[in-house]
Write a structure and sequence with these properties.
Strand order of the largest sheet: 1-2-3
Helix content: 25-40%
Radius of gyration: 18 Å
Structural class: alpha+beta
Number of strands: 3
Number of helices: 2
Shape: globular
Distance between the termini: 67 Å
Length: 91
């Protein structure tokens, strides 16, 4: 197998810098960002959020451009607390 290289818009270093910035930002527009990861296939930082508001999309595009980030929206799930720490007595 012969290794292939391809030209990308952003270096891995730049994508990691974006991912790191997103986890450290605290403005209201970024409150719903839950996690970030670099997707080597797309060459973008994938941002997981429960709600992609217009303000969030606009802020991300203004700060990083449309070709450096992608949103992955996961609906909010109810958290069920199970385990011995959350047992309640039936008596």
């Amino acid at each position: 197998m012969i290794p292939q290289t391809r030209v990308v818009a952003h270096t891995r270093q730049r994508l990691q810098q974006i991912a790191d910035e997103l986890t450290e930002l605290t403005p209201t527009d970024f409150d719903r960002v839950h996690s970030t990861a670099i997707n080597p296939e797309s060459g973008k930082v994938v941002i997981e959020t429960t709600h992609a508001t217009a303000a969030l999309r606009t802020a991300l595009a203004a700060r990083y451009g449309g070709d450096a980030v992608a949103l992955f929206v996961t609906p909010r799930r109810a958290v069920t607390l199970t385990g011995w720490q959350n047992d309640t007595s039936p008596f």
